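Provenance

Sequences were taken from public entries as deposited. Structures were produced by running a predictor on each sequence independently, with no templates supplied. The record for DNA mismatch repair protein MutL from Flavobacterium sufflavum is shown for reference.
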Amino acid sequence: MSSIIQLLPDHVANQIAAGEVVQRPASVVKELLENAVDANATDIKLIIKDAGKSLVQVIDNGKGMNVTDARLCFERHATSKIRHAEDLFSLHTKGFRGEALASIAAIAHVEMKTKQDQEELGTQIVIEGSKFVSQESAVLPKGTSFAVKNLFFNIPARRNFLKSDTVEYRHIIDEFQRVALAHPNIHFTFYHNGSEMYNLPISTSRQRVVNVFSGKTNEKLVPVQEDTEIVTVEGFVSKPEFAKKNRGEQFFFVNDRFIKSGYLHHAVMAAYDGILKDGAQPSYFLYLSVPPNSIDINIHPTKTEIKFDDESALYAILRASIKHSLGQFNVAPVLDFERDANLDTPYHYKDLEGAMPTIQVDSTFNPFSDDKVNKHYANSGSGSSSGSGSGYKKPASTASWESLYVGLKQEADFTTESTEFSFESEEVTGSLFNDEEVEHAVQNVYQIHKKYIVSPIKSGMVIVDQQRAHQRVLYEQFLTNMTVHQASSQQLLFPLNLYFSSSEMELIDELKLSLVNTGFVFEDTNDDHVVISGIPVNVTESEISMVLEQLLGDLQEGIPENSFSQNDTIAKSMAKSLAVKTGTSLTIKEQENLVNGLFACKDPNVSPFQKPTFITMRVEDIDKKFAV
Ligand code: ADP
Ligand code: MG
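Predicted structure for DNA mismatch repair protein MutL:
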């Protein structure tokens, strides 16, 4: 039979890749603006027609490209920004994948003009749907201009999917503001259908914020400044009396890159603890600088997400520095908002302070004996309000132990007879952690570097990554709850109003059913806010906005089509937001619970994001290291 596998031609591959990079005109705006910034431009013009559907053009005065590079830049994986894998850990540029221009050229008509300072003539290239149409030398000013016309001309389905001009224009403004706020040292101008929308001269960052958001902003801002070993925080937060109903003006930048983080947002909100009106949202413009090797931005080409080495320290620093600023400017104690003091304390604010998610696993639980497992799950739900989840009735099936068995004790004599199998399995798992030792309170787990939990096992030791392990535990809990439709919710005494942008509200509407399955109860949803009267048992009230925020961020690429993968996405996202973070100290009990919880999971080997949750080291391996 003849072979049936073929390599896709480049233009097809590019068109497929384009689906990831370019969702809408705003994605083009983002990529072109970032390239101009990376080219060290000091003056950048953005020109848009019909909300970017007919034209997105970016003109910069940056370093330009020579004739070879001008052609090469449209190839996939063509980048001048990294050469070696190690470069990924010292990134100072926005781009590094070399995908954007290849993707854009695959699905639009592109005219590029570029000239380097020292050259006489520049290069002008026209490329349409990945095909080079023309290339000429021309007299040009220094810098680069990209004009992207007729986006998705060759993918009618994508074109039809675009929203109204108002919506697409709003997305473009979002991207423009993010780049402009991150770079006050660059002059930006923005024209839409011939009118000048923004003209932002080079200025201080405070002035930039004011220029982007109108003159009145100035009096609202309080500066924030904190210098520590792991992070420098600079920027501004708004005085509480200027807090708004919606979340439009909240920005985090990390190393000059806009990011979204529900967790850090929560840290800011915690700093405003008790001084904001119910549901009010402060504005903030916070610039964090961290060593490039302490973050991982290599997550997704268009994601505004970032992974930090030590998130919980960052949380604490951020919260403290904002609190300090608010206090210093005397804004913290003065406000009262005429609240009824009786309604004040216990419910709404009680948890804001202790924002750190905690491990919620029944301490009496021993996964190594079947009847204890059942008892545990029968009892669950009667514990703390955020207990590890009633409704989570995961049977500790023999099958789930098999993987543990294989992973941890390869040298064991495996008998293949199925009748003996369950016995084998029980015996081995039962001896992985010595029961007696636990009962006599001998410390069987050790946390190291607030990151890993080490525990002796029969064959050597196991090292568990606390964050990933907890993600796995929570993920399976949520998934079980959702698929069996028996999630329990905790009724809120006072319904919670949460405000979102209209595009976020659209997403929430679409996800409503799946969210209800996790335990959310929506009393009402309108154009700009939801009223929540019940929340999943394993989430605290103060974590809700963080959880939803994170979820909306995770859904930037669109909502999965079937309900199964919707549930999966939600469970993953919630597990990510709520899992204990690297950098958090855990008590011995918490460590034990986490380890036990992990190994009671169906698939304890990997986090929901397919990263290993634990490794084992056999005594022989340790012996070998000493044998030198
Ligand atoms: P990346 O930004 O990830 O490197 P792109 O596809 O966005 O990938 O760009 C490819 C390459 O084209 C860049 O690495 C850069 O060398 C060059 N380039 C793109 N835009 C510009 C520009 N405005 N000025 C100068 N060079 C540019
Ligand atoms: Mg780029």
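The chain has three domains: 10-200, 206-328, 446-616.
The chain has a mean pLDDT of 79.
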